[in-house]
Amino acid sequence: MSPDLWPAVLEIYAQGIATGDATFETEAPDWEKWDSSHRRDCRLVALEPLDEETAERLVPMGKVTVLGWAALTAVSSRSVYRGVAEVSVYVAATARGQGVGKALLRALIEESEANGIWTLQAGIFPENGASIKLHKSCGLRQVRVRKRIGKLGKAWRDVLLFERRSSKVGA
Ligand SMILES: CC(C)(COP(=O)(O)OP(=O)(O)OC[C@H]1O[C@@H](n2cnc3c(N)ncnc32)[C@H](O)[C@@H]1OP(=O)(O)O)[C@@H](O)C(=O)NCCC(=O)NCCS
Fold first, then answer.
1. For the chain, what are the domain ranges?
2. For the CA of 100, the nearest atom of ligand 1
3. d(CA 132, CA 10)
4. Ligand 1 geometric centre to CA of 57 (Å)
5. Which CATH number does the domain 3-120 belong to among 1.10.238.20, 3.40.630.30, 3.20.20.70, 3.80.10.10?
6. How far is ligand 1, taken at its centre, from the CA of residue 133, in Å?
7. CA of 128 to the centre of ligand 1 (A)
8. Distance (Å, rounded) from C-alpha 34 to C-alpha 22?
9. Does residue 8 contact residue 48 with C-beta atoms inside 8 Å?
10. Ligand 1: does its nearest atom lie under 6 Å from the Cβ of 54?
């Protein structure tokens, strides 16, 4: 994800927030806030055209369509948790249900292991069936239900905590 793709990434984030079932966030942040709150490595975009070489050539000309993005947030600043990160994955409304999310999450897992991350976690609302299926199919398993853990607007919401422990990193 190069910074010049931020407007498209932001738009996709806003579409996800608008579903009401993606996140406790109610508005998309500006670049500075997003940039400082996510890990610098493991920032991925799914582009059309999907061929990497063509996409790289077209990105500077603004001739690619961003279909989705995935990134990681550190869960703690404590050293013991340096290999633990929280997944974010968002697909453009018009591109959902076509395998883009799965391609992004698979690539994110690979990239996270290449960067020394041993545990990925995801907090998912029980109402978000697509996200539950996506994370399960990429090897994350539900470890906990966090009952009425936070409020979105006026409603207390449950969050399912999913987790994947790498068998390669920190084996
Ligand atoms: C959740 C999200 C990232 C999934 O990405 P996607 O590209 O639509 O998903 P994929 O097409 O790769 O499908 C992944 C799995 O989910 C299933 N799925 C996709 N859309 C679904 C839907 N609307 N309802 C139920 N299952 C669905 C697919 O069948 C597939 O399951 P399988 O692996 O068992 O075959 C996407 O829907 C999205 O961006 N939603 C809004 C933002 C959001 O909720 N982000 C996640 C926050 S935790």
1. 3-120
2. 7
3. 23
4. 29
5. 3.40.630.30
6. 6
7. 9
8. 16
9. no
10. no
The span from the CA of 108 to the CA of 43, in Å, is 8
Element (H, E) at 109: helix 100-114
Instruction: Kindly tell me the burial class for residue 75, based on how many C-beta atoms sit within 10 Å of its own C-beta (0-12, 13-18, 19 or more).
Output: middle
Is residue 83 within 6 Å of ligand 1 at its C-beta? no
| Ligand 1 probe mutation, 124, 133, 152, most atoms within 8 A of CB | 133
- Nearest residue to 13 (alpha-carbon basis) of 88, 77, 120, 87: 88
Find the range with the poorest average confidence among 18-27, 48-57, 97-106, 115-124: 48-57
pLDDT band at 54 (very low <50, low <70, confident <90, very high): confident
Cα–Cα distance for residue pair 163/120, rounded to 1 Å = 6
Measured from the Cβ of residue 4, the count of other Cβ atoms closer than 10 Å reads 10
Of 91, 104, 121, the one to substitute when testing ligand 1's pocket (max ligand atoms within 8 A of C-beta) is 91
